[in-house]
Automatic annotation (TrEMBL):
Catalyzes the reversible phosphorylation of pyruvate and phosphate. Substrate binds at residues 576, 632, 760, 781-784. The keyword Metal-binding applies. Keywords: ATP-binding, Kinase, Magnesium, Metal-binding, Nucleotide-binding, Transferase. This is Pyruvate, phosphate dikinase. Residues 23-59, 63-304, 319-372 form the Pyruvate phosphate dikinase AMP/ATP-binding domain. Mg(2+) binds at residues 760, 784. One of its GO terms (molecular function) is pyruvate, phosphate dikinase activity. SUPFAM superfamilies: Glutathione synthetase ATP-binding domain-like, Phosphoenolpyruvate/pyruvate domain, Phosphohistidine domain. Residues 438-518 form the PEP-utilising enzyme mobile domain. NCBIfam families: PRK05878.1, pyru_phos_dikin. It comes from Candidatus Micropelagius thuwalensis.
Length: 890
């Protein structure tokens, strides 16, 4: 153990570490070492490795053997390089102590500057710098920072003392204070430390150093850091490194400064130096907001209409060096850098570099520009964009310049912004839409009966329900902005208004929702439409050249299908026909069909529904112009279509000529204890064969019609839901094939079609070999497959999913990201068994997981042919599919 290297030195154009040692040296330390190797001006320093942090915790908070002497040696090297000595009263070395984990991590200890100052070294520093004021100012800064960070004596103590003193002396700003003033402040600061901390401020510089090092390691386990790690899946075992670095001073007068810079604009991506600096200041001043920082470039200053000169203007020479260094760093790292620097007496010093955080728009522009500049390849550009971050660009957004009043906040259930007049029922929403009016549907909660209204509305606001409530799930699927669970909104359906925070909003009044943030605003707030253009379109086109898997969409309405095609969908992977049944114009016929007690009574309403379904499919096939379309036959339990409220029962009874009593009895007959596992899917198809036959006929007739009128080949894929056994599929497939024959004969036309099934029950996955004898394709219905594999009802999971996640029982919600170990094993097994029974079996996925990047990578690994997701996820899936291909197959 004792010959383990715990400390790595850097400085003077060389370093023991390098950029690829982030795990051992942390991000900051590894990049400081790399900058030294590049020959950039970096104050010399040392990095104590992350392994020391781990050893420290493994060993009851004791340091490993050998650290002490290695630290002393490295400190000696720094002293030599700088030409001063740690603790030497004549010529003192001062250092900063900086934490640095692998990934930058808020919650870690703040940096301590000017360490090494005490009652003696302060005079040495004053003499060396020829500046008493600077020395005492540095000392008081050090006492303040060290006490706050290491001794637990909070900043307020010192601010209070300073404010009182300034008031007493009639000083307004810190720059009014003289050397004597600061010297006096130091005395009072030290007294306060003694009172609060219970001991003197440490004068021994080694004690100061070990104190700061211990504070960094201690902060690895503080509450803020632990929370951050948990939320970001950073293992505790990683540990943090500590950097000790010779100080350079930005506070030595008008030729000194400190600043931060981005090599490109982090909000637009524009290839122009961007950043701020402060003359005569130390690091923390830039962020502390005590003084307003100045722009780096003249152009930026002019754009900001600032009368404070830019760095380019006041220090043209150093500015030139900074520009060169930036260029060098960008070319070396081949990515936009976020850097920190200090200028001491006209000399530039680099203190940090890392890949800069950026907006999605900037990330796209930078990636595309860097390919054009020859800095990175297209593959690299594609890998650089986080697919989920594209979501920001795929929905209408509030105009960033808009002013607005927030009247309520709820959960950000479905992203995007929308405005419209308030309506309180789905029917009104639909009526308004037909009249060309834009509305926001406001409900306490929504149910399947509201789907047509949700579709007609621009956005949905509910006062109850969480992120997985009906409103939230359906809205996300449709790409409608939704704010759910806005508890302060009090809806009164009778009065047709809602009250919130003392305001009453009546039906017809306009409100705006921002489903990305959960805000509800009064009036109409201007929004911006999303589009797939420019850099976004270019990068996605590169992704398309790379990926193997196809990307389809889950869509049933013409509008959704058209949106998906606009976003690049290559077919429909799931068309849920039940959504077509809820349409206000046909729900009565659907109800009559369901309520019929025998096939004869069912015949008439089915005949009325047939042409409507045929029109639906005709429209879909036309929009999809020859691309594959998978249509799932009716899936949900029938009673979902029946009236639930007394007044609806009355209305339905009248409309279909049935007594209310009989209707109620029939509704009760259809009710089930556990409808999810009840009389639904193919079970219903088998007991009411007329329904599936009608649907099959509508599909085939539409396909032949569209082929005739548009000339494009339509190959519909008919999908039978909830199959558990081959026999179920076989009987239904036979019936559907018979219908296909009939239709072809009637129309004297040929038609290609496929019959296949959803794999959404564990038994179906296990028996996939059998099922593939009949099925020409499988679509993994991973929503239901997750429900049935876990035995967890998705609609009831809300009450325990959150505690499961926060306590770490589940690493993630398996309804959001596929459980690759369990559900995934079933998928893999079904894919294998299915393919060995039928070599050209088409495989796809159509659950919510089809739009989740981690699940998409799993699909690539499993060799599926396509993923299918909601229209607004299509670009995300295209990018994620390309990234998976690059990571898994290249
Ligand atoms: P953070 O991780 O919060 O950015 P840093 O360790 O980078 O903390 O320190 C913050 C600032 O302190 C730096 O940007 C720099 O301005 C200043 N600083 C750190 N070390 C030194 C040093 N050796 N000399 C001068 N300034 C320093
Ligand atoms: Mg920093
Ligand atoms: Mg299902």
């Amino acid at each position: 153990m004792s010959d383990t290297k715990w400390v790595y030195s850097f400085g003077d154009g060389s370093a023991e570490g390098s950029a690829n040692m982030k795990n051992l040296l942390g991000g900051k330390g590894a990049n400081l070492a790399e900058m030294c190797r590049l020959g950039l001006p970096v104050p010399p320093g040392l990095t104590i490795t992350t392994e020391v942090c781990s050893a420290f915790y493994d060993n009851d908070r004791n340091y490993p053997d050998g650290l002490d002497s290695q630290l002393n040696d490295a400190l000696e090297a720094i002293s030599k390089a700088v030409g001063s000595d740690f603790g030497n009263p004549e010529n003192p070395l001062l250092v900063s102590v900086r934490s640095g984990a692998r990934a930058s991590m808020p919650g870690m200890m703040d940096t301590v500057l000017n360490l090494g100052m005490n009652d003696e070294t302060v005079t040495g520093l004053a003499k060396r710098a020829g500046d008493e004021r600077f020395a005492w100012d540095s000392y008081r800064r050090f006492i303040q920072m060290y006490s706050d960070v290491v001794l637990g004596v909070s900043h307020d103590n010192f601010e209070e003392i300073l404010d009182d003193y300034k008031m007493q002396q009639g000083h307004y700003v810190d720059t009014d204070l003289t050397a004597e003033d600061w010297q006096h402040i130091v005395t009072v600061y030290k007294q306060r430390v003694n009172e609060v901390y219970g001991d003197d401020f440490p004068q021994d510089v080694m004690e100061q150093l070990w104190g700061a090092v211990g504070a960094v390691f201690g902060s690895w386990r503080n509450a803020r850091a632990e929370t951050y790690r948990r939320l970001n899946n950073i293992p505790e075992s990683w540990g943090t490194a500590v950097n000790v670095q010779a100080m350079v001073f930005g506070n030595l007068g008008p030729t000194s400064a400190t600043g931060v810079a981005f090599t490109r604009n982090p909000s637009t991506g524009e290839n122009a130096l961007y950043g701020e600096f402060l003359v005569n200041a130390q690091g923390e001043d830039v962020v502390a907001g005590i003084r307003t920082p100045q722009n780096l470039t003249k152009i930026a200053r002019e754009e900001a209409l600032s009368d404070m000169p830019s760095m380019e203007e006041v220090m043209p020479e150093v500015f030139g060096q900074l520009v060169d260094v930036n260029l060098k760093l960008e070319n070396h790292y081949r990515d936009m850098q976020d850097i920190e620097f200090t200028v001491q007496d006209g000399k530039l010093w680099m203190l940090q570099t890392r890949a800069g955080k950026r907006t999605t728009a900037a990330a796209l522009k930078i990636a595309v520009d860097m390919v054009a500049e020859g800095l990175i390849t297209k593959d690299e550009a594609v890998l650089r964009i986080d697919p989920m971050s594209l979501d920001q660009l795929l929905h209408p957004m509030l105009d960033p310049d808009a002013q607005f009043d927030i009247i309520a906040t709820g959960l950000p259930a479905s992203p995007g912004a929308a405005s419209g007049a308030v309506v309180f029922s789905a029917d009104e929403a639909e009526k308004a839409k037909a009249d060309g009016r834009k509305v926001i549907l406001v409900r306490m909660e929504t149910s399947p009966e509201d789907i047509h209204g949700m579709h007609a509305a621009e956005g949905i606001l509910t006062s109850r329900g969480g992120m997985t409530s009906h409103a939230a799930v359906v809205a996300r699927g449709m790409g409608r902005p939704c704010v759910s669970g806005a508890g302060s909104v009090r809806i009164d359906y009778d009065k047709q208004d809602f009250q919130v925070a003392g305001v009453t909003v009546k039906a017809g009044e306009t409100i705006t929702l921002d489903g990305s943030t959960g805000r509800v605003m009064a009036g109409e707030v201007p929004t911006r439409q999303p589009e797939l253009s420019g850099d976004f379109a270019k990068l996605i086109a590169w992704a398309d050249e790379i990926r193997r898997m196809r990307v389809r969409t889950n869509a049933e309405t013409p509008a959704d299908a058209a949106t998906a095609v606009k976003f690049g969908a290559e077919g429909i992977g799931l068309c849920r026909t039940e959504h077509m049944f809820f349409d206000a114009n046909r729900i009565m016929a659907v109800r009559e069909m369901i309520l019929a007690e025998n096939p004869d009574d069912r015949a008439n309403p089915l005949e009325r529904i047939l042409p409507m379904q045929r029109d639906d499919f005709t429209e879909l096939f036309t929009i999809m112009s020859g691309m594959p379309v998978t249509i799932r036959l009716l899936d949900p339990p029938l009673h979902e279509f029946l009236p639930q409220h007394e007044e609806d029962v009355l209305q339905v009874a009248e409309a279909i000529g049935m007594t209310q009593d009989k209707l109620k009895r029939r509704i009760r007959e259809l009710e089930e204890v556990n409808p999810m596992l009840g009389h639904r899917g193919c079970r219903m198809g088998l007991t009411y064969p007329e329904i599936y036959e009608m649907q099959a006929r509508a599909i085939f007739e539409a396909a032949i019609n569209v082929a005739k009128t548009t000339g494009s080949t339509v190959v519909p894929e008919v999908m039978i839901p909830l199959v558990a056994d081959h026999s179920e599929l076989k009987e239904l497939a036979d019936r559907i094939e018979k219908i296909a024959q009939d239709v072809m004969q009637e129309k004297s036309a040929e038609l290609d079609y496929l019959i296949g099934t959803m794999i959404e029950l564990p038994r179906a996955a296990l028996r996939a070999g059998d099922i593939a004898k009949t099925a020409k394709f499988f679509s993994f219905g991973t929503n239901d497959l997750t429900q049935t594999t876990f035995g967890i009802s998705r609609d009831d999971a809300a009450s325990f999913m959150e505690p499961y996640l926060s306590r770490g029982l589940f690493e993630y919600d398996p309804f959001v990201s596929l459980d690759q170990d369990g559900v995934g094993e079933l998928v893999q097994l079904a894919a294998e068994r299915g393919r060995s029974a039928r070599k050209d079996l088409k495989l796809g996925i159509c659950g919510e997981h089809g739009g989740d990047p981690a699940s998409i990578a799993f699909c690539e690994k499993t060799g599926l042919d396509y993923v299918s997701c909601s229209p607004y996820r299509v670009p995300i899936a295209r990018l994620a599919a390309a990234q998976s291909y690059l990571k898994i197959r290249k």
